[in-house]
Amino acid sequence: GDFSGQLLAYLSLGPIFIIVGFVTLIIFKRELHTISFLGGLAFNEGVNWLMKNVIQEPRPCEEAHSTVTTKYGMPSSHSQFMWFFSVYSFLFLYLRMHQTNNARFLDLLWRHVLSICLVTVALLVSYSRVYLLYHTWSQVLYGGVAGSVMAVVWFGFTQEVLTPLFPRIAAWPISEFFLIRDTSLIPNILWFEYTVTRAEARNRQRKLGTKLQ
What's residue 43's pLDDT? Predict the structure, then answer.
């Protein structure tokens, strides 16, 4: 009968939904930066597993949950995952998808709103781990710090090391076979795809109208 607990339990499934969303996005978009983002999340999880097994700090109520994958709780994997995702997305929105000086108000507004939503979800998921007795406040706090630091490091690594290699990787025969592409030089991929699709649709409609005449 604890509605708050049920809601927070559903929110704690956020990492699963994010992974499913990434896999779906990669299948349909096949973009190198998205693949790199997912690789960063996987690396972040590996670091979390290593830290847990090195620190070996137990969960606050080990007997309360029989379905946890590990008895160690420092740092919280959910907190680390969500803060990695939120901080990396924040950096991507404001540094990767940079706007020109004449950016429209609505273009900037949706960025700010989305950033607030990302931080809010990360805070709620982190809080849920304490509320549901999976972690202590310190385990959640250190998880959030670790995830945020990992996000900044991975974003810098992607921008400075991987991004210059993306054009070469996209030209590999295997990349061409799987239609893997590089959109690093396009500042706003959403706007680019919208304008290209609209122009192509108008062009095809014009050609179709010519044939019908």
Answer: 93
Grouping H, G, I as helix, E, B as strand and the rest as coil, residue 30 is coil
The reply to whether the predicted model has a pTM over 0.70 is yes
Contact 32, 184 (CB under 8 A): yes
**In whole angstroms, what is the distance from residue 147 CA to residue 184 CA?**
24
Q: Which positions ≥6 away from 138 have C-beta within 8 Å?
A: 74
For 10-62, how does the pLDDT look when each residue is reduced to its tens digit (9 = 90+)? 777 888 888 888 889 888 888 888 899 999 999 999 999 999 888 888 878 76
Torsion of CA 26, 12, 145, 162, to 10 degrees: 0
Q: Are 146 and 47 in contact (CB under 8 A)?
A: yes
Closest alpha carbon to 190 in 90, 92, 88: 92
Low-confidence stretches of the chain (pLDDT < 50) are: 100-102
Residue appearing with tokens 């999976």 = 134
Angle between helices 77-91 and 137-157 (to 10 degrees): 40
**Would you list the domain boundaries of the chain?**
3-182
CA distance 132 to 107: 38
CA torsion, points 146, 149, 150, 156, in degrees to nearest 10? 180
- The DSSP bridge partners found for residue 31 are 181
Let me know the angle formed at the C-alpha of 122 by 43 and 61, rounded to the nearest 5 degrees: 85
